[in-house]
Structures are given as structure tokens and as C-alpha cells.
Amino acid sequence: MLGEVSRRQFLKGAGASVAGSAMGALGFMGVEEAVAASIRPFKLANTTETRNTCPYCSVGCGIIMYSESSKADGKRKIMHIEGDVDHPTNRGTLCPKGAALLDFVNAPTRTKYPMHRAPGAKEFKRVSWEFALDRIAQLMKEDRDRNFVAKNKDGVTVNRWTTTGFLAASATTNETAFATYKVVRSAGMLVFDNQARV
Amino acid sequence: MTNSWTDIKNTDLVLIMGGNAAEAHPCGFKWVTEAKANRGAKLIVVDPRFTRSASVADFYAPIRQGTDIAFLLGVINYCLQNGKIQKDYVANYTNASLVVKEGYSYKDGLFSGYDESKRDYDRSTWDYEIGPDGYAVTDTTLQHPRCVFNLLKEHVAQYTPEFVERICGTPKDKFLTVAKMVSETSAPDKVMTSMYALGWTQHSKGSQNIRGMAMLQLLLGNMGLAGGGMNALRGHSNIQGLTDVGLMSNLLPGYLTLPSEKETSLAPYMQTRLFKPLRPDQTSFWQNYKKFFVSFQKAMYGPAATAENDWAFDYLPKLDVTYDVLRAFDLMDQGKMTGYFCQGFNPLLSFPDRGKVTRALSKLKWLVTMDPLETETSRFWENHGKYNEVDSASIQTEVFQLPSTCFAEDEGSLTNSSRWLQWHWPGADAPGEAKSDVWIMAQLWKRLKTAYQKDGGAFPDPIVNLVWNYKNPDDPQPDEIAREVNGYVLADVPDPTDSSKMLLQKGKQVPAFAALRDDGTTACGCWIYSGSFTEAGNMMARRDNKDPGDMGAYLNWAFAWPANRRVLYNRASANLEGQPWDPSRKLIAWDGSKWAGNDIPDIAPTAKPGTVMPFIMNQEGVGKLWVRAGMRDGPFPVHYEPFESPINNPVNPKIKGNPVARVFKEDLARMAENGSKEFPYAATSYRLTEHFHYWTKHVQVNAVLQPEFFVEISEQLAAEKGIKPGGWVKVSSKRGQVEAKAVVTKRIKPLTCDGKTVHVVGIPIHWGFMGAAKKGFGPNSLTPFVGDANIETPEFKAFLVNVEPIPGPVA
């Protein structure tokens, strides 16, 4: 069980070449290179640590994410997540949800491209951001211009728009929330809510 | 939370009722374990199910879902009958001594002023008697028959242990054990904490459930103390923040409110908000309302908001009604809505009466989802067999699914239930072409602005004048927005006491909300977050985890609103003279000239003890056992049955549900009658520890841990219906049906209520038709379309179903 020997040696702090040499001395000819190649470098050694907060419940546990650049596309990708031992609330611990966060970040069902479903269609079609944003803004303006109520029946200025609504997300940041608030409210929208009421 | 997760270690008694922290908030629950291990604290759990929180409790009492008010008023009655209240606290720090004016009455579940046709109260008889000095009349001897204390005594007298058992199904001896344990914390040096969550909010009288406990905590003298308080565990990582920043139909940031259409200009708007104190010397904090409001309008509209145009008052949309989500989906179902955005929200699974939700979404012209995951909502039009039985071709809704970043790729702050604003940093790039929500919002606004500038249209002013001073307007950065939220100075303000000095300097961040002004010289996105990003930097990013007083305060960790205060109302942790009720758990104390201690004082630092009272947000200056007009359904809570109940209300059998809750006519017809033979079982919904809402079914590990939808029933019900453990059942309500495997447990036991056996059915919430877990259903296929009378949170926790065994699917 060559693999096991070399892994144990590695964990003791011995370098790959030491393990290889030792085995080479025992008569395993040419094995040195093979062993060195079989030992993976310590996974976290070349990663960047970033502090973040678990996005699930509102205990707000501290987490540390380990990321590295993907060889395929150069994008930074998370390869490990653990509890932050410095965090006063969770002190490094995580629950069954937080402990599995890596699979959330890298879930196959993450959305990756803007998609569009035409009325009556049976499937989504991929579209460009330009198409989606232009079309949505156009639909918003059409509806707002048609249904905006400047004055109520008593002639009081009410400046409201109630035929388009917005559900905001209580897992987004406060900064996202404020940017969202500015855009939604300045348009006069009243149909506006988040998970707090549900 | 009035307190914090880490503060729970200071408690003597934890009462978990309306929540299940061990499973839903496991890492926060560790502080309960800490209190048990290190202080000898006790844990009580009151719940329809013997949950994992219950499994480590010192005492567990069962209760029928939807009857918490009867239980809590029963405990209050027990405490009053047995003299188990914190007398000095009640006399000085609550409105027990205030006198209610003549004309108030209560009979058979209804208060004076009820109008059945409007399903509403005229609340004028619930006010205080106002004396010639303009203040509320008090009787500090508590002898006046109409003082709040005596009205409360009278009101709760009905809720005897026998009556509690009849309504709640909690055996009398178990109720009395809980009542006795709770009542012992009336000692000045004993403290109880209340931990609750959606088990209390998701009812047609959810707000009054919480009030019931808040009243009890005031009577026991547990509000404002270390290890005490009312602690809403909260469900999402930033549900506190989204509420604080005001992303709700009727809110402005920081719990300011939008004008109604009756408030036609700034003057009448301010008239109803600039609360005057009801007792001499009281602070009545909302007297600063205009400073917060004007600063908010300046943050939104900058130079376009001027004193001459009432600070752009007309830019604010005026409410005729509140457009909560139930109303929104009802309007949608009536064909009265055109478009809808779902940002990180999955209403197809999270709003009640899924049949109605699908119908409503199908009537939209367009729907936009912004989410890091493929949600059921964004595919509501897609046929997934019995899991989403729709005819795609007939659904004419145009749908956009916009991919957004998740936490790992995003920077910014989240406010946890301890009110801590914690900053986080991105560690990964977004997958594919996913973009941040801020970028998406900026892009939409830019297009709207350009179109309105070019083509004109309906009232372009607020859109084109919106402040958007970001380095890259296409992609505002989180720290830029955080600075805006904190607030900044728009013009130099000279020091009135020394003209050679500046009070505020143009371009600087404001240090705290106390610096905000109503003359247009300051801008502030959300006043309660002032102090979070000052000239000293980003306070939310602080990571000093030292706790010198060992009180779990962590004052230099992140930023807690308001003003970095960790325990709200902490002035009440000291007696009238300003000394802690329990010196071993000191939060703040009066040192002869100022307040100081282990927390930021929740009172002016130099306010002498005995003048300004601890509850500075209230006009009374004290905690409210009685509410004059703040609650639609009564100055005190009353037990009302859920809208679908296995029994008639023992308080008054003629009242169905909460008599002032809004019910749309079509929805009432879709509810079972009380004691229904067709739907005889009392169902409730809940979370599992392995899952988070509808997200973790996308996560491989969690999908393996809990792969499949199930319902939980008692051994007795299983035997009665011939259901085998792991066998298939159909669960149906007046609105829909689901199929599930049956988990037959000892964790649920039948209760006896009003002489009748009541079987409880538990339905977890986590399945849908997208993700890694097996396809399944959720309780929202079954639940009624009705919400809390005050805030419209849907009644997810108590409804009627039938359960029948069915043959399993063919493999």
C-alpha cells in the first residue's frame, strides 16, 4: 500500500523526496518519482482565506472560505469552507447546513446566464444581459406610464404605482437592500415586501 | 432580539415557545447549553412536538398550535394571583399605574368599539385619561379600578389552569410546573429569556402572541436585563436588515413610515409622528422624527429635496392600503397586476394556498426573478407532473431569470438577530455571467432614467433626481452604499456655542444619528445604522472579540444598532436609583454623574435616575402592558382560535379566527369550518435541522441527509388510520393535497382540547421540484390565505387537514 505509506509520511511532515528515497533504499527502483507525483500538495496551502458570514439563518455565524484560481477559466473558486474560530457567536462551529455550504456555492443548479421564457413557451432560452435588461426596463416603463396614479379620486397627489411589485430578498446585504430601496421607491412602487412578513 | 445570542449565557431560565432553536438555530442554541452548564440555568420548551430543543429541556409541556395566548395569559394570571411579579419594576417601569379613560370595556372576546361590518375597532375608548396638565393620569398605589394593572388582572382572570388545559390541551399539572418556574424569575436577581420564532409569528394573531410574552417579561422585570428580553430568533441571515432598511410596503428605512393618502403634505404627516410625551420629563425619542426623515429624503433626492418643496414630500408614494404579499397576490389573481420581481424569493413555495399563487403568477404579463439558484417560482410555468401540474402553453407570462451572485461572491453587511451588522468579503468570482443584485438594480435604474429623460412619461422627477453619486454609476460598490446609509454632511454647520468651530463639516461622515438635522445639512439612508461607517472607518468590519466585562457584549465586534448598543432598554437593568438589580450581571449603572458599564447606555448618559424612564421610544417612557392604539386587535391579547380550528373558541364560540384579521371573500370560502369532519386534524409546518427553506435541496450533502418529503404523525393516529411507518399518505385540506411518506413518531401525541381528542400533523417545508433532493411538496399547497391582523404574516402554523393512507408510487 504505497499510497498509504507515503500519505502517513507526508502528514508527519516528511517531504515527498524523503519518503521516496527511503523506499528507494529498500529496493523500490524508480519509485521515487512515482511517489512524489502521487502525493498531492496540501490542498489549503495555496488558497486564499476570506472571512464571510453564513447566509442561512440569522445567528450570523462567522465562516472562513478558502479559494484558489481555477486552471480552467482563471476564476477564483471556493474549495473549502469552515467555521471561524475567532467569531464570538459560533466560535468555529457550524451546523449541518453551514458545514455543507461548499455544495451550495458550487451547486449544479446555480443560475449562470440570463434566461428568457416567451409567453406560452415550454422552455427557457438563454439571452444576453443587454436583451434582458432593455426588455425589462421597457416593460416597467410601459406599465408605469399606463398605470401610475398621480392623483386619487379626491384630487390628492398620491404618486403611486401599484401594478408592478417587488419582493426583496432577506439574504442580500444591507447595501443591496438600500440600492434596491432607492430604485424601487423612487419609481413609486408600493407593492414591496421581503421575507420579514412571511 | 432585544438582547443577543451571546447574552443568553447570562440567563437563569430559557423559555422556548414558538420556536425550535436547537434545530433551526443550532449554533445560537449553544448559548443555551452554555447557560445550563455554567450558570445552572433551566430550559423549558412548550411546543406541539417534542422537538430536539425539548429533548434537552429540563421541562417540556405540550400545547396545541395556535393557543399560545391562552397559555401566556394563564401564566400572567398565575403570577398576579400569587404575587409573583417584580413589584418595583412594574410600578416604575411599566404603565401599570396609568388610568384608562371611562368607556372601555371587554366582554366575551371583544373590546369596546368593535364594528363587525368593518371587522375593525374604533380604538378611541382604549386611550388613557388625560389630566389637566396634558399628561396621562396615574395612580401609583395601583388602587384605581381603571388603572392598567387592575384592568389586566380582570382581563386575565378567565385564564385559570383549567381553562388553559381546556384550550391548549396542556395538562394542568404541566402548565402549573411551567407557570411556577417562570414566576420565580420575578425575583429582582433572577432572569428569564424568551426565545421565539415563526411558531409565534405565523398566526392570524401572531403579533399578540409576542405581546403576551412581552407583557409577562415586563411583569417579571426581565426586559432590559442581561440574560432577559424578547428574543426573536429570526429566519434569514439578513431578515433583520431588510426590515431595518424598510423594504416593506409601508416603511421608510429605520422604521419611519410612508404617508397615507390622508396625509396630504409634510405638516399633517409630521403631526401624527412627532409624538409628545405622555408623562412629565420623558424623552419620547420620536420627537427627532423629522431629523431622520429629512436626512433620508436628502439621501434619496439630494438638491431636489428642499425646504420649499417639503423635502420632496410628493416624491413619496402615498398609501391607500398596505400592499403586503397576500394583498399583492390577491390583486394578481384578480388580474390587476402587470409585472413582478422576485429577488432571492420563492413565493411559489413560500406563500400560502399554492393553487392561488400559481393562478396569480399565470395572470402576470411578466415576471423577473433574480436569484443565485434555480427557483420553482422562475419555472412556475413548467410542467413537472404532479409536482407542478400546469399547462405551459396556456400561461402567457413572459419570464426573465436573472443569475445573481451568492454570499461567497458578494461583499457587504448582514444584520443578524443580535442586531449586529457584520461585514463580509468576497472569496470567489461569480459563475458564468452571474452579476450582483446591486449591478442589476443599477442597470435597470439607468435604463429607466435614460428613457424618462429622453421620452418623458409619468412623473419622472423622483427617478431622474435620485442621488447616484457612485464612482462607477454602472456598478456601485458596497462601501460607497454603506457610507450613504450611515449618513454624511452636506454643508458646514457652525457650532452654536463657538462660532470659530464647526459642529459638522461638509463631506464628512456623520458620527451618529444624534448629529442628524432637519434643515437639509445632513443626508442619511437609515438613521438606526448611523455610526456604522464613520470617519473612523467601517465599524461593521471590526473584529476585536475581547469581552472585558465577560457579559457577552463584544462591543468592538462589528456594529450593533442603535449606537452600538447590545442590550435594548438596558436602563431597566438598574433600579430607580441607577444600581443594577443584580450586581453580578451589571450592564450599566449610575456613577453619580453619568451612566456607564459594560454596554452603551440606552438613555442619555447624563439623565439622572428617577427622571427619564427606561423605555425612551414610548411616549409613556415606560413599558406598555396596555397599548392605546398600536394594535388593531386589542389593548390586551385575547385567545382566538386559528381560522381553521378543530374546536370552537371556548372564549366565545361565535368568533371565527381573529375578529379583525383581513380575509378576502374568496379565501373564506376556501376554509374549513371549525371542528370539520372532512378535515379533522390540526396541522402545523416546521423546519428540519438539515435544511434551510428551499435552498439546501440544491445542496448535495443536505439532499442526502434529508432526501425526501414526509409528514409526521403520532402512533395513535397511525393506528387509527391504518398507516404504517414509512407508508404513503395523502394529506388534504380545503385548498389542495399532497402525497408524502408517513413518519410515525412518539414526538407528537394526541391532545385533549375542549373535551375532544385533537391529532396534530407535522409538515416540514423543504421540498419542491428543483435541486438535488427528490421532488416533493410543501405545506403551502394546503395552508389558508389569511394573515396576522396587524402585519399580515400568513397563518402557516395552524390549519386543518385530513390524512389517508394511499398505495405508494410504482417503483
Q: What are the salient characteristics of this protein?
A:
heterodimer; A: 198 residues; alpha+beta; N-terminal domain of TfIIb; 4 domains; 3-stranded antiparallel β-sheet; 3-stranded mixed β-sheet; 8 strands; 33% helix; disordered N terminus; B: 811 residues; alpha/beta; Rossmann fold; Barwin-like endoglucanases; 6-stranded mixed β-sheet; 5-stranded parallel β-sheet; 22 helices; 33 strands
CATH architecture of the domain at 6-232 in chain B: 3-Layer(aba) Sandwich
CA radius of gyration of chain A is: 27 Å
Largest pleated sheet of chain B: 6 strands, mixed
Strands of chain A, count: 8
CATH architecture of the largest domain in chain A: Single Sheet
Structural class of chain A comes to: alpha+beta
Spatial order of strands in the largest sheet of chain B: 27-29-28-33-26-32
Largest sheet of chain A: 3 strands, antiparallel
CATH topology-level fold name of the largest domain in chain A = N-terminal domain of TfIIb
Number of strands of chain B: 33
Low-confidence stretches of chain B: none
Instruction: Give the end-to-end Cα distance of chain A, rounded to a whole number of Å.
Output: 57 Å
CATH class value of the domain at 6-232 in chain B: Alpha Beta
Oligomeric category: heterodimer
Number of helices of chain B: 22
User: What is the SS-derived class of chain B?
Assistant: alpha/beta
* Mean pLDDT over all positions of chain A: 87
Largest interface: A-B, 120 and 164 residues
